[in-house]
What does this fold into?
Amino acid sequence: MFEHTKRLQFEAKPERPDPLYARKLQELVGGAFGEMTVTMQYLFQGWNCRMEGKYKDLIMDIATEEIGHVEMISTMVARLLEGAPATETTRAVQDPVMAAVMGGMDPQQAIVAGGGAMPTNSQGVPWNGGYIVASGNLLADFRANVAAEAQGRLQTARLYHMTDDPGVKDMLKFNLARDTYHQNMWLAAIEQLKQDGYEDTVAPGALFDEEHREHATSLWNLSEGNDSAEGAWAHGTAPDGQHQMGIVESPEPLGGPGTAPPPNPDLYATYAGGETPRDPELSHGKGMVGKLKDELT
It folds into this structure.
């Protein structure tokens, strides 16, 4: 159950309208690393968590907080759009170039959303559920969360320097601070998983005896020169404590030619290897294509 509080998590009042910046701020709403992404990522991680207690509660705490971030930034977008497109039209009369681009604002914010935020990025691309990571493995998910918060904070920092509006900057200062905490929080949660014995360093912590262990230790040097050999990843004990790190200076391919099998002539794929036997089922409409045809008719 979720309960909506009418007050925003943090104030979202610009000093003046700015439709162009409203479009830029859409990235923090519906971009790949925007607030909608982390909201849905954490919600599904929480709903899929198989352990009641501190981990599930932590994930749901942050998921619920992120819902408030979507509301806060969407409110800021709507307030930045106040008077648009009328404001921009007035300015456009004085500047033919601005008339052509409507001051850089997203016309869909006016035409579709009635002067409000949309579930899109700064280019108007709709938000996509494929952006989220919710695998059920908490170690893998928490690492993805660190990356999401890092990317989100990076974009917030860039947007911070794209405005001189005190009200907008004040809100972004809050977002920066929460992204700082969230990165540290997920890193701490990863260490807690290890201390509690649920996970180790490599996710998942299984199948080490099944994998080709000789390929679990070395960097393949596939760049010109040997600069990559200078990194810690090419020397000493691995972070998991189970492997020694090394480097293969001149790696050789381990497999044969990547040649696909000859095509069936009835598929009319270009082939230089001569005739291949025809597939009677395919020819009589009972192969894959034929069955698909039957299904459609």
Summary: The first helix runs from residue 19 to 25. The first strand starts at residue 218 and ends at 220.
